[in-house]
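INFO batch 0412 | record 1 of 1 | parsing
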Amino acid sequence: MTTSQPLIGVIEDEPKLAALMHDYLLQAGYQAHAIHDGAAAVAWIKEAQPTLLLLDIMLPGKDGLAILKEVRTFSTLPVIMVTARVEEIDRLLGLELGADDYICKPFSPREVVARVKAVLRRLNPDPAVAQRLQLDSDRFEASLDGHLLPLTRTEFQLLLRLSSHPGHVYSRDKLLDTLYDDHRVVSTRTVDSHVKNLRRKLTEAVSGCDPVKSIYGVGYKWEL
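INFO prediction complete | emitting tokens
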């Protein structure tokens, strides 16, 4: 294994789970290093300078939230939090702590690898892919493969949210929060209507292109 491969730090106190995540990351072509004690995490991060961190919240020695807060004083290292504490999610993804994503336990190792790939792809996008979709937030204008998309402001906001985090599945409720920040009462089926219109305009612009994927019973994600 060469040093050019991204190094993923796995800060997880359950040895079997850490070993499983470690093995799946190796199979996906990453380097991986597991640490089971939160107290040792920051020193290792400073020394090893990993590419991305998978950080559990519940850790001995020092919990994951304290580790993340300290890491953010010296590094913009992408961090995916691993948590069974759903009530912490808003804090994790907010500006207060600055996590890049989260995974809720229980999860599949394949989901972990997919989330790692998605975060790294978002932070270091493939230039060929980045050029396909162009977004101008000041003008609420979007183009795909050079074709201007005639989007409403709401459709633009939907596209912006989905495409900013490829592979991440957004629930209808979460998308509603993005589209309507004035707390109006709107049915979640309104999201389906906006998605339908967005898909139509994408496929009309580029024949056969449908990067908005439906996840049955959950919501939508972007894959381009």
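INFO post-check: The mean pLDDT is 84.
INFO record closed
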